[in-house]
Write a structure and sequence with these properties.
Elements: H1 2-12, E1 13-19, E2 30-35, H2 42-50, H3 52-55, E3 59-64, H4 70-78, E4 81-84, H5 91-102, E5 106-109, H6 127-135, E6 142-151, E7 160-166, E8 170-172, H7 180-201
Parallel strand pairs: 1-7, 2-5, 2-6, 3-4, 3-5
Antiparallel strand pairs: 6-7, 6-8
Helix pairs in contact: 5-6
Length: about 200
Amino acid sequence: MFVTQDIVLRLFFSKKIIINNGFSIPSNSSIILAPTHRSRWDGLVLTMAIGRRITNKDCRFMVTKSEMRGIQGWFLKRLGCFAINQLSPSLSTLRYAIDLIVKGEQLVVFPEGKINKYGKKLVLKEGLYRLARLASKKTKSITIVPIGIAYSNVSPKFRSKFCLSFGKPIEINDNSKIPINEFNGFLNDEMFKQEKIALINVGR
């Protein structure tokens, strides 16, 4: 945290803006953070906004296998990331993710499934909803938080600004009957709504 938050982020970015809209994480809750994915900086700025120093909980990131290769993979692993094969996720990876949720950790899942640099509206992946439903069988409810992330430049540059806007939490429990397509449509709308707020605040 000292290197990434106190040195790298503070030197690289000129301003951070956090819009929490009155949001606070309920105590002893199971959390899935669902942010838009615009840059490789997203994980670092998200950790600064809602990581251990703010919530006393680390952010644990579910990322694609391709992102966990080489030096980048070494670095991401130490930031709390773990890989999943989107086409054929292993049972051990799913169990690990569900255990993190049930234990009250902050699991970060990028529902768009990849870096979507220009913010084109994509059909969300089904993994987040399926994880939430599986985890809800082991805990009372799951809190899913839509988050919009925006930078003052499409590709963040030295001394750019960034903004995160937190949307209203969505509760999922074992009695939830909403179809997956309907849920993903609602979550997508909420993520983009928050991103629009973030974009305005960075001057785009």
